[in-house]
Amino acid sequence: MANDSVINVCFHGIGTPQRELEPGEDRYWISEELFGAVLDEIRDWPGLRISFDDSNTSDVGIGLPALLRRGLTADFFVLAGRLDSPGSLGPEEVRLLHRSGMTVGTHGMRHIPWRGLDPAAADEELVTARERLTEVVGADVSTAACPLGRYDRTLLARMRRLGYTRVFTSDRRPARALQWLQPRYTVRNDDTPGSLRTEALQGPSPMSRLKLETVGVIKRLR
């Protein structure tokens, strides 16, 4: 890998869900045992950056203690519209993440794709949600993760105008440290520490790499 390469690894739910899951979401919930094993695998990877999406209560109940025991930090992308909802983080838990040295970013308001939103909905997702989280944390919230990994050039241009300093996606490939758009490897329940290591460190075949890069280009330009 290049010296400025970053490997973003993203988690969602850990353990038993405490809320009703969306269709297909169960694939992104992993056992506490797998979570610990993956953390132990990746903790010494070069250029590692960890993140959590969806603001599940497991972020604080399981994720945060495991990170602190290993001396790791992470970005937590919070859904402002789910604050204090069953199974989701509340304001005090979000503040705890911030006090513990973690970065709090926005995942929007309602966990809907941001691509193709009308102006009012886009304002709610990209502006109002961010303002609410900034108020909760008491510090600027300037990073975001695109729900469901969906984006296009119109969305990215809007987010640049709004002053977001870094935007995270679900494109499974390495990033560059100073890149504004940060692809991530999302951990799924059929992953293992070994499979993640093979994919992220050894990389895909040349043909698969070309396909991944092409998909990213299409998303950015469409």
Structure report:
One of its GO terms (cellular component) is extracellular region. InterPro entries: Glyco_hydro/deAcase_b/a-brl, NODB_dom, Polysacch_Deacetylase. Helix content is 39%, strand content 17%. It is of the alpha/beta class. The chain has one domain: Glycoside hydrolase/deacetylase (TIM Barrel, Alpha-Beta Barrel). The strands form 3 sheets. Strands 1, 4, 5, 6, 9 and 11 form a 6-stranded mixed β-sheet that branches. A 3-stranded parallel β-sheet has the order 7-8-10, with no helix packed on it. The chain is globular and about 45 Å long. The mean pLDDT is 94.
Key features?
222 residues; alpha/beta; TIM Barrel; three-stranded parallel β-sheet; 7 helices; 39% helix; Polysacch_Deacetylase; signal; hydrolase activity, acting on carbon-nitrogen (but not peptide) bonds; NODB_dom
Q: What's the gist of this structure?
A:
The protein is built from 7 helices and 11 strands. Helix content is 39%, strand content 17%. The longest helix is centred in the middle third of the chain and has 19 residues, at 119-137.
Outline the secondary-structure elements.
Layout: E1 5-11, E2 13-14, E3 29-30, H1 32-42, E4 48-53, H2 58-69, E5 74-78, H3 91-99, E6 103-106, H4 119-137, E7 143-145, H5 153-161, E8 166-168, E9 175-176, E10 181-182, E11 185-186, H6 193-202, H7 206-221
Parallel strand pairs: 1-4, 1-11, 2-3, 4-5, 5-6, 7-8, 8-10
Antiparallel strand pairs: 1-9
